[in-house]
Amino acid sequence: MKIQALVDFVVYVLNAIYGVVGNYGIAIIIVTILMRIVIFPLTLKQEKSMKKMRDLQPEIEKIKEKYKDSPQEYQQKTAELYRESGVNPLGGCLPLLIQMPVFVALYWAFSGNAIPADAKFLWFTLKQPDRLFMIGNFAFNLLPILNVGVTYIQQKIMTNTTSGQESNQQMKTMLYMMPLMMLFIFYRMPSGVTLYYLVSGALSLVQQYFILKGRSDDGKDNIKSSK
């Protein structure tokens, strides 16, 4: 599907929802919720895979120690362990890849003329950065900062559920790098796009919390939750 066709489709859906709710900001939130519902089976599988990977870390550390002088064999044995355990280390990328075209389409929709220039939600115009207030010539944009907070919490949860010195060190690096990247990417972006990403991140965070703190894969209560 060409990007313009996808943009036209997203705009059509937004306008259809706008016709019912009368506000493009609310329409964006509804589109975001619908998107999260569509990809829920994939994100559920992703979160369960994360839990399995966490449980496999002690075995991976043993393999690493045993084959520390043979990186190729270490990679092979690790891949075999993942395969036998039904874990796909790259499975977490799929929900992001599915959402990316919608994200790009929203960006082009709010950067072009498809959405009215005066479309507003709360205090901000959706085709401009949200600008809560000005400090001299500096605009304080709240939505990107909220995005930083959501991204930090997501990375913190992932860090706390990852064992293994090397993996944990990588996650600690991402704990600070990802929020800074989000701030840089979104600070001057149209607030309609930032709103979509913020709501999607918040919904993902809630889902991530309940999956990791809820039941284990065999249906029994998580030990931590039961105490």
UniProtKB/TrEMBL annotation:
- Lipid bilayer topology: Multi-pass membrane protein
Where found in the cell?
Cell membrane; Membrane
Q: What is its main location?
A: membrane
Read off the Pfam families from this record: 60KD_IMP (PF02096)
| Bilayer-spanning residue ranges | 24-44, 90-110, 132-153, 195-212
- Entry-linked InterPro entries: YidC/ALB3/OXA1/COX18, YidC/Oxa/ALB_C, YidC_ALB_C
Molecular function (Gene Ontology), one example: membrane insertase activity
Keywords attached to this entry: Cell membrane, Chaperone, Membrane, Protein transport, Transmembrane, Transmembrane helix, Transport
Annotated Membrane insertase YidC/Oxa/ALB C-terminal domain residues:
24-212
| GO cellular component terms listed in the entry, alphabetical order | plasma membrane
Q: GO annotations under biological process?
A: protein insertion into membrane; protein transport
Please give the family membership noted in the entry.
Belongs to the OXA1/ALB3/YidC family.
Annotated protein name in UniProt? Membrane insertase YidC/Oxa/ALB C-terminal domain-containing protein
Q: What organism is recorded for this protein?
A: Leptotrichia shahii
